[in-house]
Amino acid sequence: MMTIMSAKRTKTAGAPAVGVKKPALTLLLAAPRGFCAGVDRAIRIVELAIERYGRPIYVRHEIVHNRAVVERLERLGAVFIEELDEAPDGGRVIFSAHGVPKSVPLEARRRELLYLDATCPLVSKVHVEAERHHRAGRLIVLVGHAGHPEVIGTIGQLPEGSIILVETAADAERMIAPPASALAYITQTTLSVDDTADIVAVLKRRFPNIAGPRKDDICYATTNRQEAIKTIAPRADLVLVVGSANSSNSQRLVEVARKAGAKRARLIENAAAIDWSALEGTHTVGLSAGASAPEVLVDEVVAAFKERYDLKVEEAIVKREDVEFRLPRALGAG
């Protein structure tokens, strides 16, 4: 199920005058791109909660990392907060797709707040793995980015000191584990597939008996979008990724594009953020979008290019996605 979003089209400067021949440009459109099943589910939870319970609905942290999505939901009646103490007694609260520490639902119950959990099921899978390893007596190494909400939520599943955070291969080389410790590793779901493989290789070399996930923790959507951008990057003079600056998976797409051979790669919030002067002499542009970016923003970028160029669009499809996640039963879905 995909959420249909509307947005005002932004008129951007620099389009050729009427009658002036447009330069030719090829736009390579990566697929899959944009919303994943976890993002779509989280947005639908907020929409349905507003329909069922009325406004306001309080959402702890941005439901997903995209300003267009957040601003649209604010117009519908969502109020985004950072901590539960910002929600009034008796309020209805939704936890974001990134997951939360166990202390958050405990506090919500203590205050008798009514809450819905929009944590992506693939993030919840990592939480379950962490608890399984902890019960087995293993010290857990979490590969992820410090300060990211998903990492904060995962670390918060277990008692303090149960998880060591590793961000880079250099961190993995320096990591010191207590003698005779049984180890396991888990990962954030939105990392670079290749960078994570390098980190895990270091961990396995240094700690041959380290236990890993039964199935890779990096989610299918992150993997698919990175594979798609790898197919277009070598052909592109410039790769544009639509997404917000605080979106981990969008930032990783930019990095992957550069490593895969794109001459240049940039993250843009929307069509209005394109620096058209930087495209002079450019003949081929790659375009993708992070898993939290709505397709309407991609459509606006394509329309902006059509205003300025004699545009040829080629879609590079590496995989078709048909994943759907169930909505909470409290919203009428089983």
Describe this structure in words.
This protein is of the alpha/beta class. The protein folds into three domains: 24-35 and 220-317, 4-hydroxy-3-methylbut-2-enyl diphosphate reductase, catalytic domain (Cobalt-precorrin-4 Transmethylase, domain 1, 3-Layer(aba) Sandwich), CATH 3.40.1010; 37-120, Rossmann fold (3-Layer(aba) Sandwich); 122-206, Cobalt-precorrin-4 Transmethylase, domain 1 (3-Layer(aba) Sandwich), CATH 3.40.1010. Helices cover 35% and strands 18% of the residues. It has helices spanning 37-53, 67-76, 103-110, 121-135, 149-155, 169-174, 193-206, 220-232, 248-259, 295-308, and strands at 24-31, 57-60, 78-81, 92-95, 114-117, 139-143, 163-166, 183-187, 238-242, 265-268, 284-289, 310-317. The strands form three sheets. A five-stranded parallel beta sheet has the order 10-9-11-1-12, sandwiched between helices. A four-stranded parallel beta sheet has the order 3-2-4-5, sandwiched between helices. Strand 6, helix 5 (149-155) and strand 7 form a beta-alpha-beta unit. Helix 8 (220-232) runs parallel beside helix 9. The two termini are 15 Å apart.
